[in-house]
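User: Could you check the structure of this?
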Amino acid sequence: MRVPVAWLHEYCRPDLDTDALANRLAMTGTEVERVEHYGVDALEQFVVGRVLTADQHPDADRLRVCTVDVGEGEPSQIVCGAPNVAAGQTVAVAKPGAIMPDGTKLKVAKLRGQASHGMILAEDEVGIGTEHDGIMVLGDDGLTPGEPLREVLPIATDVLELEITQNRPDCLGIYGVAREVHAATGASLAPPPWSQDPGSPGDLDAVRITVEDPDLCPRFTARAFENVRIGPSPRWLKARLMASGQRPISNVVDITNYVMLLTGQPLHAFDLDRVAGAELTVRRAKAGEQMETLDGQTRVLNEETVLIADADGPTSIAGIMGGARSEVGAQTTRVLMEAANWNGPNIHRTSLRLGLRTEASGRFEKQLEPEQAMDAQAVATQLMIELCDARLIPGTIDIGGPGAPPATIRLRDARVAGLLGLEIPRQRSAEILRALEFTVAEVPDGLDVTVPPFRRADVTREADLIEEVARLGALEQLPATLPPRHGASGRLTREQRLRRRASDALAAQGLHETVGWSFVAAEQAERLRIGERSFVALANPMSREQARLRTVLIGGLLEAIRGNRSRGAGAIRLFEAGAVYLPSDQLLPREPYRIAAAVTGPVRRPTWREQAPPTADFFTAKGVLGGLLETLHAPWTVTPGAPEPFLHPGRAAEVLVAGQPAGWVGEIHPQVAGAWDLSDPVAAFEIDFATVVAAVSDPEYTDVTSFPDVREDLAVIVPDSVTAAEVVATALSAGQPLLMTAEVFDVYRDAERIGAGNVSLALRLVFRAPDRTLTDQEVAGRRRRISAALAEHLQGHVRES
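Assistant: Sure, the predicted structure tokens are below.
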């Protein structure tokens, strides 16, 4: 919810700047997502001006060259394109140096050869409306040229962006937030804006209302107005709506939005002359029933949908959006103002099913209280009379009445101290609760507290009252202590240490960590060709794009690569470490922890020596995986094959850690990558971290020997079906204990020289003994054993030339 601070100050003005106020609210339980400045800046450059002359521009039909008195002695020349500018007008002027709502700093400009020292302003140019066709004419009202514009118009304010929790719908209105500020800071609170109600009870003959489902509509109120003048709202109201994120439309519609933002209670205005039969019925929709809503869409309803219907059918989806058939327009002269209370869970289900979320539904689904309906009616009635010159038809329809009688809860001093571990004086508790508009009476062991209607659903027991006292008067005083448990420590577990080491190892290789959504769309599984696998579906997803829990990490990485590539990134190297969610026969799904990485684009930056570096491929991903597992000291190998359907069949392998299947590594199939609009090869891997952790052992250390290595190269011819890893493993096994390392450094194929179906692998062998310098005879003996093992196990032989 957006709270313009200037509007908030009308009801509660603490002696705090905006940042300090935001911090105080956050520390007392109201989350402040951000603080922003709305409107213009460099306010001293915005002044009242008076147009002295307005002559036609010599070189432009639609421009006028004006001289404007801005209180600086000599008039300023300003070129203006508004059709309504004329001599004698009092206007709003931005001088050079003014900062406009979009951040632009105004400068002296030349328009078709004529200098312009500023700008004569329209509403949208100072953020107090959407009108741009003409300049604002302020009227005289004793205004003098050069007077600061901020004293005339609300052209700037700070805005608090609040995240209101489900249990506090009373804070979805400006006055509710003001009440919180009053309790949190001690600043005085103005009387509620609904304290004076110009309306009256009694029958209302202008319309008949029937509520068929009182369980879904606990209260329905309505008032009628005639002689309504439809027109633009005053600028102060437009400014408050704009700063709150609402677009001004007309005075009647703006009143409904303004009252909702002020009180938290949504309203709806009907054109009474367009209500067929002058009757409205609150009922459940019939299966398949349709109606056109204010956004121009035709909605198909079901039996769970609550609607308001007239004699011709549905005219409003209750609590969500009105219908086009009875909306207020330019010809409206009679208005029926409705403020009702609806069943919150029903509104939430309907909003999700229709994919229609509005400011009204967002409030009603948190379950407003019935008393708030008449609060909103009182404010709306005042504004209809003041801003629309409307005549209130006597009488008020009120079906359902207020909610249940207020509950009284005993707050015991001993229980407060026992639960908080801190003595809170009884008078302080009473002060806090009275500031929140609870009624308090002192009793021998504490306080009897009566809960106000707007907190009825939130405060239902003694612990809830203690929470109110704690958040406003005790939490900041609580000392920081460690849990009273023997052996408690802040050490990481072995797996936690390995997780951090794994992330550090990938970051050291130049990869950037991402944190993706645990919720994914069903289409992601189809793109990855794993749509037939079982998954965990959400019973109540926030959207269609978040209907399932992820079963792999690679989908999120491909989404991240696409997002980065669409913004011009070339080389992309990403990894993610987190849980996936797999179905189980238990209440909760299994949540194995996995690590995945994906790379695409050039493997290194171009230089003058290499203007087109190679792009990432299978071996790039394998190298990153090897760097990770070797950092963790986990023994690993790969076996050729594509264990996943989204992998390239000839450029993928299964990863084995200590002989156990642990994941995969390879290139993403081009068709799968194409589903994410990726044309370059994408190399990736994904491994199960629990398998890795089980294979990790403490590292072993050996003395650094001073005896030299003996290095020899060996060319081995083996069948094409034999892998390089098998050749290296066979050589290491046969060369023990003197053979330290064996690496492939060249691959050669020539059907004429080594035979068709064969490949020659060049091995670099390193021999070393810890206690002596090796002789040629010792090394030759090991070479012979290696050659024999290659011939015996792999049908290979040493190449002579």
